[in-house]
Automatic annotation (TrEMBL):
GO biological process: carbohydrate biosynthetic process
Gene3D superfamilies in alphabetical order: Aldolase class I (3.20.20.70), Antifreeze-like/N-acetylneuraminic acid synthase C-terminal domain (3.90.1210.10)
Protein name: N-acetylneuraminate synthase
Keywords, ordered alphabetically: Transferase
Domain of life: Archaea
Annotated SMART domains: SAF
First-tier enzyme category under EC: transferase
GO MF entry, a single one: N-acylneuraminate-9-phosphate synthase activity
Location of the AFP-like domain: 288-344
UniProt entry tagged with the keyword Iron: no
EC number: 2.5.1.56
Lineage, uppermost ranks: Archaea, Methanobacteriati, Methanobacteriota, Methanomada group, Methanobacteria
UniProt keyword Transferase, yes or no: yes
Length: 344
């Protein structure tokens, strides 16, 4: 599909995903509002999470520490069950996103969810860091032949190599996402230089899935060449739920998008050339060789006779030594430019 061209490693436009995730709190209506807000904020895509709770987690699995701080359910199963949307809900959300002209994506966590999203026609699969070593799921996703965006949080380089190898010959479009799996992630732990490490090691486009509280890290990641940015997105950070507090509200998400687009404009072509404005300012800001005092005609020029002053429309100062010992052919007044046609 046309929008997947954004994932091309030579494309200069970063693909920005508003990670709504489970911030709909199990409400279809709230999920639609997240789609509206993501579109208004300038995101290229809005992304949810698709799962069958009974296929994802055991009944007695503990919650992560950040989940214990942000939710009241006794187990991870109970928490996730409240956040589960139906298959029909996802079909409706995909249709709604299409009507709003924003790309619909969702992260699958089980085989049934992969099949559902494939049936819906998502333009790509986004896989979370927790699935990087889940080879059966990765192989099932790869069998669909769609582009894959794979997060690498919690992974060693060897584990990433194994996952990348699994996708070889199965998809031409694999994007790795640098990620630090912590909610919220500490800036000291982000290690953005890993973006270049992944890109040079695997010769693949690399993006950044960010869990910090601010917008600085995604902006910096784009400056380092990230082709995809994923950032958690909520309508209200104070809502109940595991991910709201580590998400951006619409106003801040919009600021991030605008900053990223400005960074992209500022990155340029890499070719050092003068702008139109610089060509004009150059005439004023640079300097020329002028006469320090009146210099008579037929005078041998010495360094003491010369000065270097603005503007820069005469002989450049780098040629000063070339003028020493030359003879003037006409009188040159104080502060007048020396000209090549006035000396011999």
């Amino acid at each position: 599909m046309e929008e997947i061209d954004k994932f091309n490693k030579d494309n200069c436009s970063c693909f920005i995903m508003a990670e709504a995730g489970v911030n709909h709190n199990g409400s279809l209506n709230l999920a639609k509002k997240l789609i509206d807000a993501a579109k208004e904020s300038g995101a290229d895509a809005v992304k949810f999470q698709t799962f069958k709770t009974e296929n994802l987690v055991t009944k007695n699995a503990e919650k992560a520490e950040y989940q214990k701080e942000t939710t009241t359910e006794n187990s991870q199963y109970e928490m996730i069950k409240k956040l589960e949307l139906s298959e029909d809900n996802f079909r409706e959300l995909a249709k709604y996103a299409d009507e709003k002209d924003i790309i619909f994506l969702s992260t699958p966590f089980d085989f049934e969810s992969v099949d559902l999203l494939d049936e819906i026609g998502v333009p790509a699969f986004k896989l979370g860091s927790g699935e990087l070593t889940n080879f059966p799921l990765l192989e099932h996703v790869a069998s669909k032949g769609r582009p894959v965006i794979l997060s690498t949080g919690m992974a060693t380089m060897d584990e990433i190599k194994e996952a990348v190898k699994l996708f070889e010959d199965k998809t031409n479009d694999l994007i790795l996402m640098h990620c630090v799996t912590s909610y919220p992630a500490k800036i000291d732990d982000i290690n953005l230089k890993v973006i270049e490490t992944l890109r040079s090691t695997f010769k693949l486009p690399v993006g950044f899935s960010d869990h910090t509280l601010g917008i600085e890290m995604p902006i910096a990641a784009v400056a380092l060449g990230s082709c995809v940015i994923e950032k958690h997105f909520t309508l209200n950070k104070n809502l109940d739920g595991p991910d709201h507090k580590a998400s951006l509200e619409p106003a801040d998400f919009k600021k991030m998008v605008l900053a990223i687009r400005n960074v992209e404009k500022g990155m340029g072509t890499g070719i050092k050339e003068l702008t139109i404005e610089e060509k004009e300012i150059k005439k004023i800001a640079r300097k020329s060789i002028v006469a320090r005092a009146n210099i008579p005609s037929e005078t041998v020029i010495t360094e003491e006779m010369l000065a270097i002053k603005r503007p820069g429309t005469g002989i450049e100062p780098k040629f000063l030594k070339s003028l020493i010992g030359k003879t003037t052919t006409s009188k040159i007044k104080k502060d007048d430019f020396l000209r090549w046609n006035l000396i011999k």
